[in-house]
Structure formats: structure tokens, C-alpha cells
Amino acid sequence: MPLWTAAVLLFVRIEKTSNPLLWLAFGAVAGLALMHKYSFAFYLAALVVGTLLSAWRRWLLNRWFWGGVAIALAITLPNIFWQAHRHFPFLELQHNHRNVILPPLQFVYVQALLVNILSSAFVIAGAVFFFTSPMKRFRALGWTFIAYMLLMYTLHAKDYLVTPVYPAMLAAGAVAAERWFASTWSSRFVAAYVLAACALSALMLPSFVPVLSIDAFARYHQKMVLHRIEAEDNAHSAVPDYYSSCFGWKERAEAVSRYYNALPADERQKTAIFGSFYGQAGAIDHFGPALGLPKAICSHHSYWYWGSRGYTGESVILLDVDLEYLQRHCASVTLVADPKVQWARPDWERPIYHCRKFDRDLTKEWDAYRHFD
């Protein structure tokens, strides 16, 4: 978010100072922002739309503008080559995400919740402000905001991917409020409104910052009138996914450790710990060293690139696989554990099994298990 805001600030400074050398700084910031979050590419696309629809299109003929483009490309080119060499896994990941598809009004409602229902009025004010006569010079930012919102909605992006654009819009909205409500009584109304927005933010704070115990938060969450719609189509616990996703990892790693360390030494050496997705494998790799566990293997997302670490499948502890599948492909299946943690996501709390003599060689067929869902 700071890099996005810095890019907008540079855009404004370029227009206010007419200093084309700042395009070089903009290119550097844009390159770093792209390396941090690919979604910035969509914001750049929206910025191009805003530029073409405004007087800023004159910059397209400036050599320093293209110098900034060259700097941004130089920073991101190694990553682009990496993506191309591996058939753009980022695009495959996006294609397989199970994001909740929201109708237009719900999409707007979710965005208002993220920025605070009352504070969202300043975002709207900022967007309108860019289309008034005093802000004609910066109208490109208004078009950019509209284009980016439409792009994110059309692509069914996760709700939080929109949030980096809000600091600039809130700033514009604050300036608009200061100009539009300059009289004494109007300014008092704005001050009262800001205080109300701050009070609402305080009420919503436990939803975003763990200031309450999980039990207290669960009760608080159930009583809240304003609820954020979950971003992914998964099974959910009594608390939002971004809270429930924090629970159960250590317990599962400890359950695997108790079983793994009880195996004969010769069997431990050839026993792989297979996470069905990156979170499970990451939990093993995070807690495992203190528990005497080896590195996990996993074919999900970028974990796939580490391969099977030499494990053939002769002995595999699997953290999340259907029992029926294992019974078809393993010579024997043993229940390792079935740990249940109250607040963990239910779709991640499945039994853990030990498969002996898997009928496929993981070292030879590793590519077949790659997945992004």
C-alpha cells in the first residue's frame, strides 16, 4: 500500500511541478510495487486508461516518461522471464482461485466495509472531486479509480485487492470536504462526521486487529451488525477466515511429530510428510525443526518447485487426502491422528494418514500432482 500511495504522490508531483525527471522515480516505484504485488499491474492499466481520457496523455510523448517505463521494466523483467519460463503460474493461480463472485451492490458494500461505512463517503467525495473544475488537472486519477474498480469487479478479485487505492482517494476526499464545507456550521458537521467515523472504526477494530481473546471475539463477531463477506468459497468456522486460518497448525504438526518419531529409525528415513496445500507444508516446515520433523513436500503453488525431495512414496504421511483414494493406491493405510481445534477452518481439519507403498513413484510422477486450486 505505501508503494501504491507513493506512485500516486509522484504522479501528482509530476503534474504540479511539470518536472519530467520525476518519471524516472515513478518508474522505480512502479517496478518495486509490481515486484511486491502483481495486482499493481492492474492499477497501472487503469492509470493508462485515466491518462488517455485526460490531458495527461501529453506525457506519452515525453522521453522521460518512457525512461520511467524502461526502469520499471528493468526491475520486473527477471520476474517476467521467470513467469514465462514456467508458463505463468501466477495466471494459472488466478484462474483456479475460488473467489466469491459478488453482485455489483454487494461488491460496493464490501468495499465500504473495508474502508469503514462512514469513511467511504470521503472516498466517494474524492472521486467526485477529481471531476470538478478546480481538479481538472488531476482528472486522470478520477478516471483511474473508476477504471480500477470496474476492472477488479469484472475479474472477481478478492475484496482486499482494492484497498491500496483508498489512501489517495481518502486524501482527495478530505480536501474536497475542506473546500465544500468551509463555513463554520458546515465544518462542525464534518468534524462530527469524522468523530463518528473514528468511533465506528473503534467498534470494528476487533475484526481486523486481535485486541480480544478468540472466545471474546467470536461472541463479539456474532453480535456485530456489519459483517465482511468472505473472499473465498470455502467451509467457514464461527469466526472469519482470516482469524480461523491462524488456528490448528501447531496441533497438526505436533500430532505428526508424535507418530513420526515413534516409527522405527529406518522407516523414518524414507517417510515423507506430504501437505496437500502450502499452509500445511508451511506448518510442518515452521514447527517441524523443533519437533524433529524433516522438510515437508507439497505439490501446491510454488512448493511444487522443491520437488519430492527424493522421497519415492514408499512411506508417506499425508495431512489432507481422502481415505478412499489412499485405500485404492496404498498397500496399507494407518490413521495417524485426527486433531480438532475449535476455531480452525473445518476444511483444513481432516484426518492425517500414513500410506505405505504408494503405487506411484513420486520422484518420477511429481509433475502430475501439481495444482493451484
- What's the helix count? 17
Question: Could you tell me the number of beta strands?
Answer: 5
Q: The biggest beta sheet, please?
A: 5 strands, mixed
Shape: globular
Rg calc = 26 Å
Task: Label this structure with key terms.
373 residues; 55% helix; alpha/beta; globular; single chain
In words, what does this structure look like?
With 373 residues, this protein is an alpha/beta fold. The protein folds into 3 domains: 1-88, no CATH class; 97-233, no CATH class; 249-369, no CATH class. Helices cover 55% and strands 7% of the residues. It contains 17 helices and 5 strands. The longest helix has 23 residues, at 63-85. 28% of the residues are buried. The mean pLDDT is 87.
Describe how the helices and strands are arranged.
Layout: H1 2-17, H2 22-36, H3 40-52, H4 63-85, H5 89-96, H6 104-115, H7 120-129, H8 139-154, H9 166-180, H10 184-204, H11 214-223, H12 241-244, H13 249-260, H14 265-269, E1 271-275, H15 278-291, E2 297-298, E3 315-318, H16 323-329, E4 330-337, E5 352-358, H17 362-365
Parallel strand pairs: 1-2, 1-3
Antiparallel strand pairs: 3-5, 4-5
Helix pairs in contact: 1-2, 2-4, 3-8, 7-8, 7-9, 13-15
